[in-house]
Protein backbone atom coordinates (compact mmCIF):
# COMPACT_ATOMS: atom_id res chain seq x y z
CA UNK A 1 0.00 0.00 0.00
CA UNK A 2 1.28 3.51 -0.72
CA UNK A 3 2.10 5.40 2.48
CA UNK A 4 -0.50 8.07 3.19
CA UNK A 5 1.16 11.34 4.18
CA UNK A 6 0.28 12.20 7.79
CA UNK A 7 2.17 15.45 8.20
CA UNK A 8 0.49 18.85 8.49
CA UNK A 9 3.07 20.78 6.43
CA UNK A 10 3.41 20.02 2.72
CA UNK A 11 5.56 21.21 -0.17
CA UNK A 12 4.41 24.64 -1.32
CA UNK A 13 3.07 24.45 -4.91
CA UNK A 14 4.82 26.65 -7.48
CA UNK A 15 7.77 27.01 -5.11
CA UNK A 16 10.55 29.41 -6.15
CA UNK A 17 13.52 29.53 -3.76
CA UNK A 18 15.03 32.76 -5.08
CA UNK A 19 11.68 34.56 -4.96
CA UNK A 20 11.17 33.41 -1.36
CA UNK A 21 14.73 34.46 -0.46
CA UNK A 22 14.00 37.93 -1.84
CA UNK A 23 10.70 38.13 0.07
CA UNK A 24 12.48 37.26 3.34
CA UNK A 25 15.28 39.73 2.60
CA UNK A 26 12.70 42.48 2.04
CA UNK A 27 10.81 41.49 5.21
CA UNK A 28 13.99 42.02 7.23
CA UNK A 29 15.59 45.07 5.66
CA UNK A 30 15.21 48.53 7.12
CA UNK A 31 14.08 49.31 10.63
CA UNK A 32 12.14 46.47 12.31
CA UNK A 33 11.00 43.39 10.45
CA UNK A 34 7.72 42.18 9.00
CA UNK A 35 7.22 39.24 11.34
CA UNK A 36 3.91 38.18 9.80
CA UNK A 37 5.46 37.93 6.34
CA UNK A 38 8.34 35.85 7.72
CA UNK A 39 5.96 33.62 9.67
CA UNK A 40 3.54 33.03 6.77
CA UNK A 41 6.28 32.21 4.31
CA UNK A 42 8.36 29.88 6.50
CA UNK A 43 5.46 27.90 7.98
CA UNK A 44 3.95 27.26 4.56
CA UNK A 45 7.11 25.73 3.05
CA UNK A 46 8.37 22.20 3.67
CA UNK A 47 11.73 21.61 5.33
CA UNK A 48 13.33 20.66 2.00
CA UNK A 49 12.10 23.95 0.51
CA UNK A 50 13.33 25.97 3.51
CA UNK A 51 16.81 24.49 3.06
CA UNK A 52 16.74 25.58 -0.61
CA UNK A 53 15.67 29.09 0.46
CA UNK A 54 18.73 29.26 2.77
CA UNK A 55 20.98 28.35 -0.17
CA UNK A 56 19.31 30.87 -2.50
CA UNK A 57 19.58 33.60 0.17
CA UNK A 58 23.30 32.90 0.55
CA UNK A 59 23.97 33.10 -3.19
CA UNK A 60 21.79 36.19 -3.73
CA UNK A 61 22.85 38.27 -0.73
CA UNK A 62 26.06 36.60 0.49
CA UNK A 63 24.49 36.30 3.93
CA UNK A 64 23.40 33.49 6.23
CA UNK A 65 19.60 33.43 6.46
CA UNK A 66 19.55 31.69 9.85
CA UNK A 67 21.93 34.30 11.29
CA UNK A 68 19.74 37.12 9.91
CA UNK A 69 16.58 35.55 11.36
CA UNK A 70 18.27 35.18 14.75
CA UNK A 71 19.24 38.85 14.61
CA UNK A 72 15.75 40.05 13.63
CA UNK A 73 13.57 37.85 15.84
CA UNK A 74 13.53 37.22 19.58
CA UNK A 75 12.47 34.74 22.23
CA UNK A 76 10.33 31.67 21.62
CA UNK A 77 9.26 32.86 18.16
CA UNK A 78 12.91 33.08 17.09
CA UNK A 79 13.66 29.61 18.49
CA UNK A 80 10.71 28.13 16.61
CA UNK A 81 11.50 29.80 13.26
CA UNK A 82 15.20 28.94 13.45
CA UNK A 83 14.35 25.29 14.30
CA UNK A 84 12.17 25.14 11.19
CA UNK A 85 15.09 26.26 9.01
CA UNK A 86 17.39 23.39 10.01
CA UNK A 87 17.19 19.94 8.38
CA UNK A 88 15.57 17.51 10.90
CA UNK A 89 18.80 15.67 11.77
CA UNK A 90 20.59 18.98 12.45
CA UNK A 91 17.66 20.18 14.52
CA UNK A 92 17.88 17.00 16.64
CA UNK A 93 21.67 17.41 16.89
CA UNK A 94 21.26 20.99 18.17
CA UNK A 95 18.65 19.91 20.73
CA UNK A 96 20.91 17.16 22.06
CA UNK A 97 23.93 19.48 22.12
CA UNK A 98 21.89 21.97 24.18
CA UNK A 99 20.63 19.15 26.44
CA UNK A 100 24.14 18.06 27.43
CA UNK A 101 25.98 21.40 27.30
CA UNK A 102 27.02 23.15 30.49
CA UNK A 103 26.11 22.07 34.00
CA UNK A 104 23.30 19.56 34.35
CA UNK A 105 21.62 17.54 31.63
CA UNK A 106 18.14 17.79 30.11
CA UNK A 107 17.39 14.06 30.40
CA UNK A 108 13.82 14.50 29.15
CA UNK A 109 15.09 15.87 25.84
CA UNK A 110 17.56 12.97 25.43
CA UNK A 111 14.83 10.46 26.24
CA UNK A 112 12.32 12.02 23.85
CA UNK A 113 14.65 12.13 20.85
CA UNK A 114 16.51 8.84 21.28
CA UNK A 115 13.45 6.78 22.24
CA UNK A 116 11.26 8.01 19.37
CA UNK A 117 13.47 8.19 16.27
CA UNK A 118 13.71 5.46 13.63
CA UNK A 119 17.00 3.71 12.83
CA UNK A 120 17.46 5.95 9.79
CA UNK A 121 16.75 9.10 11.81
CA UNK A 122 19.29 8.06 14.48
CA UNK A 123 21.81 7.33 11.72
CA UNK A 124 21.27 10.81 10.22
CA UNK A 125 21.43 12.43 13.67
CA UNK A 126 24.82 10.85 14.47
CA UNK A 127 26.19 12.08 11.13
CA UNK A 128 24.70 15.59 11.55
CA UNK A 129 26.15 15.90 15.06
CA UNK A 130 29.59 14.93 13.79
CA UNK A 131 29.30 17.40 10.90
CA UNK A 132 27.97 20.31 12.98
CA UNK A 133 30.15 19.97 16.09
CA UNK A 134 33.08 17.77 14.97
CA UNK A 135 32.35 15.57 17.95
CA UNK A 136 31.15 12.02 18.48
CA UNK A 137 27.57 11.93 19.75
CA UNK A 138 27.93 8.61 21.55
CA UNK A 139 31.08 9.80 23.36
CA UNK A 140 29.33 13.03 24.42
CA UNK A 141 26.27 11.13 25.71
CA UNK A 142 28.51 8.67 27.58
CA UNK A 143 30.44 11.56 29.13
CA UNK A 144 27.26 13.22 30.37
CA UNK A 145 25.14 10.31 31.67
CA UNK A 146 25.64 7.31 33.92
CA UNK A 147 24.45 3.86 34.95
CA UNK A 148 21.77 1.85 33.17
CA UNK A 149 20.34 5.08 31.70
CA UNK A 150 23.63 5.63 29.87
CA UNK A 151 23.82 1.98 28.73
CA UNK A 152 20.34 2.11 27.19
CA UNK A 153 21.03 5.42 25.42
CA UNK A 154 24.18 3.87 23.92
CA UNK A 155 22.18 0.85 22.71
CA UNK A 156 19.62 3.19 21.08
CA UNK A 157 22.43 5.14 19.41
CA UNK A 158 24.10 1.99 18.10
CA UNK A 159 21.04 0.33 16.60
CA UNK A 160 21.53 2.31 13.38
CA UNK A 161 24.86 0.58 12.86
CA UNK A 162 23.05 -2.74 12.64
CA UNK A 163 19.57 -2.02 11.27
CA UNK A 164 19.09 -5.75 10.69
CA UNK A 165 19.67 -6.35 14.35
CA UNK A 166 15.96 -7.00 14.83
CA UNK A 167 16.64 -10.50 16.11
CA UNK A 168 14.45 -13.43 15.15
CA UNK A 169 11.55 -14.02 17.52
CA UNK A 170 12.60 -15.77 20.69
CA UNK A 171 10.87 -16.28 24.01
CA UNK A 172 11.69 -12.66 24.99
CA UNK A 173 8.54 -12.35 27.08
CA UNK A 174 9.86 -15.15 29.29
CA UNK A 175 13.26 -13.43 29.38
CA UNK A 176 11.55 -10.22 30.52
CA UNK A 177 9.59 -12.11 33.17
CA UNK A 178 12.76 -13.69 34.43
CA UNK A 179 14.59 -10.35 34.30
CA UNK A 180 11.92 -8.63 36.39
CA UNK A 181 8.91 -10.26 37.97
CA UNK A 182 10.37 -13.64 38.82
CA UNK A 183 13.75 -12.45 39.95
CA UNK A 184 15.02 -11.27 43.31
CA UNK A 185 16.45 -7.92 42.21
CA UNK A 186 16.19 -6.89 38.57
CA UNK A 187 18.36 -7.90 35.65
CA UNK A 188 18.51 -4.48 33.97
CA UNK A 189 20.91 -5.72 31.30
CA UNK A 190 18.25 -8.12 30.04
CA UNK A 191 15.67 -5.30 29.81
CA UNK A 192 18.18 -3.20 27.88
CA UNK A 193 19.09 -6.08 25.57
CA UNK A 194 15.51 -6.95 24.66
CA UNK A 195 13.92 -3.49 24.49
CA UNK A 196 16.89 -1.90 22.76
CA UNK A 197 17.65 -4.42 20.07
CA UNK A 198 14.48 -5.93 18.69
CA UNK A 199 12.11 -4.70 16.02
CA UNK A 200 8.90 -2.88 16.93
CA UNK A 201 6.74 -5.61 15.38
CA UNK A 202 8.52 -8.27 17.40
CA UNK A 203 8.28 -6.30 20.64
CA UNK A 204 4.55 -5.68 20.26
CA UNK A 205 4.09 -9.47 20.14
CA UNK A 206 6.38 -9.83 23.15
CA UNK A 207 4.29 -7.29 25.11
CA UNK A 208 1.06 -9.14 24.26
CA UNK A 209 2.57 -12.46 25.30
CA UNK A 210 3.98 -10.88 28.47
CA UNK A 211 0.53 -9.62 29.44
CA UNK A 212 -0.94 -13.11 28.90
CA UNK A 213 1.68 -14.81 31.01
CA UNK A 214 2.14 -12.30 33.84
CA UNK A 215 -1.36 -10.81 33.87
CA UNK A 216 0.02 -7.27 33.78
CA UNK A 217 1.28 -4.88 31.10
CA UNK A 218 5.04 -4.50 30.71
CA UNK A 219 4.73 -0.82 31.74
CA UNK A 220 3.62 -1.83 35.23
CA UNK A 221 6.62 -4.12 35.63
CA UNK A 222 8.98 -1.36 34.45
CA UNK A 223 7.47 1.04 37.00
CA UNK A 224 7.81 -1.57 39.75
CA UNK A 225 11.29 -2.80 38.88
CA UNK A 226 13.20 0.20 37.54
CA UNK A 227 13.64 3.76 38.79
CA UNK A 228 14.77 7.28 37.92
CA UNK A 229 15.75 8.35 34.41
CA UNK A 230 16.31 4.73 33.40
CA UNK A 231 12.67 3.93 34.22
CA UNK A 232 11.49 7.03 32.30
CA UNK A 233 13.59 6.07 29.28
CA UNK A 234 12.32 2.47 29.24
CA UNK A 235 8.71 3.65 29.54
CA UNK A 236 9.27 6.07 26.64
CA UNK A 237 10.74 3.26 24.52
CA UNK A 238 7.71 1.05 25.26
CA UNK A 239 5.27 3.90 24.52
CA UNK A 240 6.95 4.62 21.18
CA UNK A 241 6.85 0.93 20.26
CA UNK A 242 3.13 0.85 20.99
CA UNK A 243 2.31 4.21 19.35
CA UNK A 244 4.65 7.10 18.59
CA UNK A 245 1.67 9.40 17.97
CA UNK A 246 0.26 8.66 21.42
CA UNK A 247 3.66 9.23 23.02
CA UNK A 248 3.91 12.69 21.42
CA UNK A 249 0.28 13.59 22.16
CA UNK A 250 1.01 12.91 25.83
CA UNK A 251 4.27 14.91 25.75
CA UNK A 252 2.45 17.88 24.18
CA UNK A 253 -0.36 17.73 26.72
CA UNK A 254 2.09 17.65 29.63
CA UNK A 255 4.07 20.54 28.10
CA UNK A 256 0.97 22.75 28.20
CA UNK A 257 -1.17 21.64 31.12
CA UNK A 258 -0.96 23.41 34.46
CA UNK A 259 0.94 26.60 35.15
CA UNK A 260 3.62 27.65 32.70
CA UNK A 261 4.43 26.09 29.35
CA UNK A 262 7.45 23.94 28.57
CA UNK A 263 8.14 25.87 25.39
CA UNK A 264 11.28 24.01 24.31
CA UNK A 265 9.38 20.72 24.36
CA UNK A 266 6.41 22.26 22.56
CA UNK A 267 8.64 23.76 19.83
CA UNK A 268 10.72 20.61 19.41
CA UNK A 269 7.70 18.33 18.94
CA UNK A 270 5.69 20.68 16.71
CA UNK A 271 8.70 21.21 14.45
CA UNK A 272 9.94 17.61 14.36
CA UNK A 273 6.55 15.96 13.77
CA UNK A 274 5.02 18.54 11.36
CA UNK A 275 6.13 16.51 8.34
CA UNK A 276 5.81 13.04 9.85
CA UNK A 277 2.69 12.28 11.90
CA UNK A 278 1.09 15.53 13.12
CA UNK A 279 -2.34 14.41 11.87
CA UNK A 280 -2.07 11.18 13.89
CA UNK A 281 -0.91 13.10 16.96
CA UNK A 282 -3.88 15.46 16.63
CA UNK A 283 -6.28 12.53 16.33
CA UNK A 284 -4.91 10.79 19.42
CA UNK A 285 -4.84 14.09 21.33
CA UNK A 286 -8.50 14.79 20.56
CA UNK A 287 -9.59 11.31 21.67
CA UNK A 288 -7.43 11.16 24.77
CA UNK A 289 -7.91 14.65 26.19
CA UNK A 290 -11.32 15.54 24.77
CA UNK A 291 -10.04 18.79 23.34
CA UNK A 292 -8.14 19.62 20.20
CA UNK A 293 -4.40 20.22 20.13
CA UNK A 294 -5.15 23.39 18.16
CA UNK A 295 -7.34 24.77 20.96
CA UNK A 296 -4.89 23.91 23.67
CA UNK A 297 -2.08 25.71 21.81
CA UNK A 298 -4.40 28.67 21.24
CA UNK A 299 -5.22 28.97 24.95
CA UNK A 300 -1.66 28.42 26.10
CA UNK A 301 0.48 30.64 23.85
CA UNK A 302 0.38 34.13 22.37
CA UNK A 303 1.53 36.48 19.61
CA UNK A 304 3.50 35.40 16.53
CA UNK A 305 4.69 32.36 18.45
CA UNK A 306 1.09 31.18 18.76
CA UNK A 307 0.32 31.90 15.08
CA UNK A 308 3.34 29.89 13.93
CA UNK A 309 2.50 26.91 16.18
CA UNK A 310 -1.09 26.89 14.93
CA UNK A 311 0.14 26.86 11.32
CA UNK A 312 2.29 23.81 12.14
CA UNK A 313 -0.65 22.16 13.85
CA UNK A 314 -2.51 22.52 10.56
CA UNK A 315 -6.11 22.65 11.72
CA UNK A 316 -8.66 22.33 14.50
CA UNK A 317 -10.34 19.01 15.30
CA UNK A 318 -13.10 20.36 17.54
Automatic annotation (TrEMBL):
PROSITE patterns: ANNEXIN_1 (PS00223), ANNEXIN_2 (PS51897). Its main location: membrane. SMART domains: ANX. It comes from the Eukaryota. GO terms for molecular function: calcium channel activity; calcium ion binding; calcium-dependent phospholipid binding; phosphatidylserine binding; phospholipase A2 inhibitor activity. InterPro entries: Annexin, Annexin_repeat, Annexin_repeat_CS, Annexin_sf, ANX6. It is found in: Basolateral cell membrane; Cell projection, Cilium; Cytoplasm; Melanosome. A pair of annexin repeats may form one binding site for calcium and phospholipid. This is Annexin. It comes from Syrrhaptes paradoxus (Pallas's sandgrouse).
